[in-house]
Amino acid sequence: MKKNWNNILFIVLVASLLFLYGFANQRNQLKKVKYVDIQFAEVAEFYIQENDVYKLLIQSDETFQNLTKENVDLKVLENNLETNDMIKNAQVYLTVDGILGAEIEQRKPILRFLDGGFQYIDEDGLIMPTSSHYSARVPIAFGFDSKEAMQLFKLANAIHQDSFLQQQITSIHKNALGELYVEIRDADFKIDFGDLNNIELKLANFKAFFAKAKKDGRLMDYMKVDLQFGKQVVCTKK
Question: What does DSSP assign to residue 73?
Fold first, then answer.
């Protein structure tokens, strides 16, 4: 009899806990969202503004004021954010005290090119539109179209991964014959790059040449530097 009584007490206790949990959860879901907290992940340049993110989350102030936790679909909100051309990834969450949070990771451009209008290539090799809020300080490519973006990405990414090349290379050009040449910041000579083969070798050769010419004080002595011949750098003086 005592054993049965203990079982009954246990069942009543579990049922009470479940009731209290359900009641508390229901009350929690009916709470209104207090405010929206938007955070950007490790970024110095803002290609999309906080107000733009807010509008993607909440369509109007009236909607925001009436929004309760139970009618917030976090997945839908994340999808809405990630449809924006400037956003790479978004995490949306709700806190127990009614804060709707959004953590935003922006796409990062590494090259700008002209194809009917300026566009970017981002760090994943995808085409990205320019922003009305901020212009990225990245090299500019002329003579390429969007169909060549992936080929151009190999060179752009190699430049982006090297702090010296990021600082020095300002533009990439392709002429009517399909030949590439590069312009740099600290000298006015033309750098013939040839095609997009052996990119790492050509850039390494350029860095070695630049370091030696700068050490010798001869950067301004040249009108052309040719990187097309394997390990050999061919220079033409003025």
Answer: -
